[in-house]
Amino acid sequence: MKKEIIPHIKTRLPGPESKKLISEDEKYVSQSYTRAFQTVLDHSKGALIYDVDGNCFIDFHTGIGVCSTGNTHPEIVKAVKAQAEKAIHIATADFYHELVGQLAKKLAEITPGTKNKKTFFTNSGAESIECAIKLARYNNRRPRMIAFIGGFHGRTMGALSLTCSRLNQRRYFAPLLPEVTHVPYAYCYRCPYNLTYPKCDMACVRYIDEVILKKVAPAEEVSAIFVEPVLGEGGYVVPPKEFLPMLKKIASKYGILLAVDEVQSGMGRTGKMFACQHWGVVPDIIALAKALASGMPLGACVASRELMSWEPGAHSTTFGGNPVSCASALVTIKLLEYSLVKNAEKMGKFIMRRLKRIWDNSKIVGDVRGLGLMIGIELVKNKKTKEPAPEYAHQLAQECFKNGLMILECGPNSVRFIPPLVIDEEIADVALKIFEKSLARVERSRK
Ligand SMILES: Cc1ncc(COP(=O)(O)O)c(C=O)c1O
To answer: Which is the closest atom of ligand 1 to the Cα of 265?
Structure first.
């Protein structure tokens, strides 16, 4: 049998069918979507995505970190179909459903810490964060919050008040929630304090304790510190090992809750079920979404039974905890536990080894960093001066796309690999060759 050539780009992009559909779409769909790639998607399978013109791409994008079990995994499709035939919606706010309880129990078991936890189900990452904000305030009646520069937590007004990633996400939307103090993240490649790890002695975290909580935001008024264990939209920044444990310690010292946003880094992406497990940190609140249900809309806010003891009606939702999404999430977790988290760890190492070589040989790759299959590549004009090169990041993502590899930009001048956790060495090898070729083209084109 003839082996399928992967990827396979047979038209100019966008192809003729895509072009027609795009021009209609653009008349009616909100322009606020960034629409990074000019193509109309049709169907997808495993690590491959096909557009309406029959072009086939390798998926290192996963719908922004969602389709971690691979696109349309047969077991997910089977579970979704089976549940859809029984009941598509049941209003979790008013009725009980077996799968909702089952999933909450499973989340209590797999999230760090004791099993004495409860879950509030949502439809998205932003909603999980909204829930976390309200839950923290409800519990300790403190109005202030701390979040990180470069952090992304969503775009609803509460979540946006914590988000501090790009100006266009915040511009014209003020006033946001008051009393959110943003502090620098442990971004060692560009240390905000111009220090070098480990000699810095984690000055960025100490600053929170020694300056912010003493001079800016009185500790007894701070309800929660919101943090991504690995910075996502802000540039796939992996902090040093001391970062999260130190934050937890500071939070505990003042009765502040540590709310960890695992919306992008959770569900096996980093080679552990949750990124905070790399550093043995047990958060007070965990926000989940994206890969939780392999593409069915579902988010979750998980916290101890003690915290989640707010009165009925204090927070609720119509769609959250949809049974089709819950069915998908239960199978997602089964697949992750069975092999995919391990595969993320293994394939992450494989890709990192290859990327390190590419990094050494490139004049415009300033940094390569990642955990598992959450990998960022930062582009610079000059490796010595580290001058950021956002235009190279953009050009590189587009060049990869033209050559059949879907990747995504992140931060001001980085690109990221977020492949499905089902990838093997063969597909990773093809993807890396496309990446290397595209990078060489960007490098040749620079002035
Ligand atoms: C870490 C993190 N938190 C929250 C969100 C918001 O999720 P959603 O777009 O589902 O609202 C995102 C989305 O990219 C994210 O990466």
So the answer is: 1
Cα 153 to averaged position of ligand 1 atoms, centre (Å):
5
Sheet bearing 414-417, strands edge to edge:
365-371, 374-379, 414-417, 408-410
The model carries a pTM of 0.98
CA of 276 to the centre of ligand 1 (A): 17
Largest CA distance in the chain: 71
For ligand 1, atom 8: residue with the closest CA: 125
Pocket of ligand 1 (CB under 6 A): 64, 124-126, 129, 152-154, 228, 232-233, 261, 263-264, 289
pLDDT in tens, 202-229: 999 999 999 999 999 999 999 999 999 9
Q: Enter the tokens of residue 47.
A: 């690590």
Is 370 part of any domain? no
Q: How far is the CA of 262 from the centre of ligand 1 (A)?
A: 9
| 108: in domain | yes
Hey, whose CA ends up nearest to atom 3 of ligand 1?
Answer: 153
The answer to whether residue 356 sits within a structural domain is no
Domain containing residue 204: 74-336
> What is the C-alpha separation between 12 and 323, in angstroms, rounded?
41
Question: Ligand 1, closest atom to CA 125?
Answer: 7
Residue 245 confidence class, pLDDT cut points 50, 70, 90: very high
CA atoms of 157 and 170, how far apart (whole Å): 10
Q: How many angstroms is it from 363 CA to the middle of ligand 1?
A: 32
> What are the beta bridge partners of residue 149?
184
Q: Which atom of ligand 1 is nearest to the CA of 151?
A: 1
Q: CA 371, CA 366: separation in Å to the nearest integer?
A: 17
Q: Which of 374, 359, 428, 61 is nearest to 235 (CA)?
A: 374
Distances in whole angstroms, Cα of residue 55 to Cα of each of 8, 9, 63, 66, 371: 6, 5, 17, 21, 31
Q: Ligand 1 atom 4: the closest Cα is on which residue? A: 153
CB contact at 8 A, 386 and 432:
no
CATH number at residue 286: 3.40.640.10
Question: How large is the average pLDDT for residues 58-84?
Answer: 98
